[in-house]
Specification:
96 residues, Serine Threonine Protein Phosphatase 5, Tetratricopeptide repeat, single chain
C-alpha cells in the first residue's frame, strides 16, 4: 500500500490498471484498506472504473462483504445498479 501512496504522491494517474487488470481502487478495496480507498476517491479516481471482466470496485466490495467500502463507493457516486459481464449487480453479488 505504501507503494501506491508513493506513486500517487509523485503524480501517477489514479486510474491505471495492473497487469492483472485490477484498477487501484479495486486493489485497495480487496485489501480492505478503506483509508487508501478514501484517499483514491479524494484524488478523483473513477469509482465506476472496471477491469477487463466488467467488475467495478462496488461489486468487489459487496462480494467481500465490506460494508464500509460499499458505503464509501455509493456516497462517492458509484452506480449501484451496474452489472458485470455476467449480469451480476452489487446486490446480487453480496447475497450469493
Amino acid at each position: 500500500m505504501e507503494t501506491i501512496q508513493q506513486l500517487l504522491d509523485n503524480g501517477i494517474p489514479v486510474d491505471p490498471q495492473t497487469s492483472e487488470g485490477l484498477i487501484a481502487l479495486m486493489y485497495t478495496v480487496y485489501q480492505g484498506s478503506i483509508e487508501k480507498a478514501q484517499d483514491l476517491v479524494d484524488r478523483g479516481v473513477d469509482v465506476n472504473g472496471s477491469d477487463p471482466f466488467g467488475r467495478i470496485p462496488l461489486l468487489l466490495a459487496a462480494g467481500e462483504g465490506d460494508l464500509a467500502a460499499v458505503r464509501l463507493l455509493v456516497e462517492a457516486g458509484t452506480d449501484p445498479t451496474a452489472e458485470n459481464e455476467s449480469g451480476k449487480t452489487a446486490l446480487s453479488t453480496g447475497i450469493t
